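This entry is listed as follows:

___
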Amino acid sequence: MSPSKEITARGLAAEVRSGVRSARSVLEEHLSVIDASEKEIHAFNLVLIEDARAAADVVDAQVAAGDDPGPLAGVPVALKDNICTRGVPTTCSSRILEGWRPPYNATVVDRLVAAGAVVVGKTNLDEFGMGSSTENSAFGVTRNPLDLRKVPGGSSGGSAAAVAAGFTPLALGSDTGGSIRQPAALCGVVGVKPTYGVVSRYGLVAFASSLDQIGPISRTVADSALMLEVIGGHDRRDSTSIPVPAPDLTSVLDRGVEGLRIGIIEELSGDGLEGIAVDVKARLGEAAAALEAAGATVAATSVPSTVYGLSAYYVVAPAEASSNLARYDGVRFGLRIDAPNAGDMNIATRTAGFGDEVKRRIMLGTYALSAGYYDAYYGKSQKVRTLIMNDFARAYEEFDILLSPTAPTTAFPIGEKTSDPMAMYLNDVCTISSNLAGHPSMSVPFGLGNDGMPIGIQVLAPATDEVTMFRVAAVLESTAPAGHPAIGGVA
């Protein structure tokens, strides 16, 4: 099958709903692409071939009966393997949950199925979402489809790779400190972290509950807009869900940016930030110029406390992970290593079940929450979080939207940073602050680096203003320099 970047989720759904194509034929074409390249990329932990065929047949039966299957009719979708799917192994890429089958669906899964989407499989990730390269999986490394020697980013690297490789037009990821946006940037696709509470977290296996958010990954801004409309909206089963309807996004994509005020965050793009590559800065400057040419006012701005975001995050997130992962004790579900008594069994199970990065973060978090250190570390990090929120609020008094790089560099070689946790953590330096503030942000591909690999521009917006964020993203997409050709997919 010849590669094509013209196949979009919106286009496929329209063809299936009108009867031009069958959901089954769409699925089989994508399964063929998966079969051809999955072994070398390893985007999936599990491909649900027969389940997907049954779901596609249901969609075709609805069309034949004159019913509308929904806005994602027949569109193949991949799910990050930390999103619960009833009766389907959901592992978080961890030995401690290997083979665990949830008795319920996540809310986002129910909403996708109700919209006619066809779930194709569960994608690989850094174990429990802890990583920036998808090298921390118990089930093997995922490779970047654009260069198999390089990482796809993380922790939603399997989902980003699945979309970049043309395995599915859409995928879901989760984002705790950049885990949707950073892999989207490294794989040359669109990735969206919605406002905290816009998408239900019910059925998302928790990493850091005050930071986690589910969001779409796609090849186009319009497809991400459509997917977010489907999965967004209030859910009474999630106590942090915002009681507002899903945002109307697809209707605003052609409004342009005339009159918008856009700020470039100096702390995340200037010479003062360690590690931002020269080619990444160049693409950011070109993105700013493109928006200005389209009618926006663009200027530099300061969000001072973002320089402390990385430090605060790596206290807050491990602390919440330490609490959330305490439930994996060998008693209730998942792996159990038998031992003479409960204490030894618990230790043996967690030692065998968790990988090195998860153990590292559990220990960091437990230490930060311990007596005598709580105020010095966790309490102080929460104060920094408040400072970040306040600084963003001031910036948004002057600007409608903020811009920064998504990742400091293009995709790096597999194995290059695995022995240096601090170097790996720096990959999140541009994305973390949005999670700490709870604000929406997204990565849009914008040209290539000097190595020919994609670069992503991050669009940041105030809470619940996904509409303006997507308007800016659509203009960036339409003005982007020539990027990589599609390397997979169906024609």
Observations:
- The domain at 9-252+440-449+472-479 is CATH 3.90.1300.10 (Amidase signature (AS) enzymes).
